[in-house]
Amino acid sequence: MKVLVATEKPFAAAAVDGIKKEIEGAGNELVLLEKYTDVQDLLNAVKDADALIVRSDKVNAAVLDAAENLRIVVRAGAGYDNIDIEYAKKKNVVVENTPGQNSNAVAELVFGLLVFACRSFYSGKTGNELKGKKIGILAYGNVGRNVARIAKGFGMELYAYDAFCPKEAIEKDGVVAVDSQDKLFTDCDIVSLHIPATPQTVKSINKELVGKMKKNAIIINTARKEVIDEAGLLEIMKVRTDLKYITDIKPDADAEFQTFEGRYYSTPKKMGAQTAEANINAGIAAAVQINAYFKDGCTKFQVNK
Ligand code: 3PG
């Protein structure tokens, strides 16, 4: 079977080596398409692929139509909003993700960015400490749990809200499970976003919600830019000159956010999962899942059942 790895943002070299070893070790063939800038390159490369490994690369109807032999796509990572899963289902293409494999990398970046923001972006100006502050974790999945683990080390007070996770599962980790998203925003000094981009969450972080936050509050986004109502956030940050927005996903309105000097920061390119460890974990997991699918028909991680 021909397995194409198509990554506009490439994996670390060690991850590619690991993927190659897994795929070829199972008697399959590996083809690499890295750092492509033209979608036509992807359309050409996918033509005779039986399996596809991607990161945030868009796998839309055009890609799925071009891929005549395709049977499985694995998103090496958590969020699969870059893949048209319904169209894939219509075409009998299995779509999987690799949950949990890059979550520590994202959670560590949350704290890298938080310390940077709390210390006035290393400008030399007096900053604040994380110890004793209330952190609100919005969605208690794999990343949220790692954020909680690290926040304990900083001596923070932990709160979380997750519409789908039972309260007991949150509280057994020593985290206060609040009853609503509103309460998380009202009560916490910092809110860290870990919700996926779904029809329910898109633009859900809006003016009204952010306006409820405490004085000097910080929102940190290592999830998806789509969950932010950018117009609403810009509006409230103009009025509430104490609020900070820190993100790993550059907003469409980056230039306007840049005018909030000392209150806004975006990484130049999404880098939450950009560690060798995360690439190795997620990349090899993707290869193992593809081998298992071809060998035994295993679809344990399928997201378009
Ligand atoms: C994910 O959904 O797993 C993360 O957002 C990582 O995305 P990336 O592979 O584009 O870095």
UniProtKB/TrEMBL annotation:
Question: What PROSITE patterns has UniProt attached to this entry?
Answer: D_2_HYDROXYACID_DH_1
Residues in D-isomer specific 2-hydroxyacid dehydrogenase NAD-binding domain copies: 125-248
Q: Which residues form the signal peptide?
A: none
Q: Which UniProt keywords apply?
A: NAD, Oxidoreductase
InterPro entries reported in the protein's UniProt record? D-isomer_2_OHA_DH_cat_dom (IPR006139), D-isomer_DH_CS1 (IPR029752), D-isomer_DH_NAD-bd (IPR006140), NAD(P)-bd_dom_sf (IPR036291)
**Pfam families reported in the protein's UniProt record:** 2-Hacid_dh, 2-Hacid_dh_C
State any single GO MF term.
Answer: oxidoreductase activity, acting on the CH-OH group of donors, NAD or NADP as acceptor
* Top-rank taxon, per record: Bacteria
Is the NAD keyword given for this protein? Answer: yes
Give residue ranges for domain D-isomer specific 2-hydroxyacid dehydrogenase catalytic.
Answer: 36-304
Q: Does the keyword Transmembrane apply?
A: no
Q: Which SUPFAM superfamilies match?
A: Formate/glycerate dehydrogenase catalytic domain-like, NAD(P)-binding Rossmann-fold domains
The chain's coiled-coil residues are none
Family from the record: Belongs to the D-isomer specific 2-hydroxyacid dehydrogenase family.
Annotated PANTHER family = FORMATE DEHYDROGENASE 1, HYDROXYPYRUVATE REDUCTASE
Q: What is this protein called?
A: NAD(P)-dependent oxidoreductase
